[in-house]
Design goal:
5 strands; five-stranded antiparallel sheet; alpha+beta; globular
């Protein structure tokens, strides 16, 4: 089944707050994510599954590592880890507001 990217899992409709980071390991926090998005002028990060992420800048151009086969900067990689652990498919930062997609329910629960 192929998605269009507009399914509920890919809609960042829930404003994030500190409760979203209750179990996160420092330095991960709402402020850390906002600072990282502002530092790289990011609009959203989308997790498609496994280790497949798409990072977009505010102008909707893709944001890539500086060199081919390199990883993203460490602060962005930490956000990737957080999204994977928390099962968040999208984090979006527009006009000073940080939003996330609904959290996917764990299949074993």
């Amino acid at each position: 089944m192929s998605g269009t990217g507009t399914e509920p899992a890919f809609e960042a409709s829930i404003e994030m707050n500190e409760d979203d980071f209750e179990f996160a390991t420092p330095p991960m926090s709402k402020e850390f994510v906002i600072q990282t998005f502002e530092k790289y002028d990011l609009r959203h990060i989308v997790l498609f599954g496994e280790d497949m992420f798409y990072v977009s800048q505010q102008d909707l151009e893709p944001f890539h590592p500086l060199y081919v086969k390199n990883s993203y900067p460490d602060d962005i990689e930490l956000i990737f880890d957080f999204m994977t652990i928390e099962r968040i498919h999208k984090i979006e930062y527009i006009e000073g507001v940080l939003k996330r997609s609904p959290i996917e329910e764990h299949p074993d629960i």
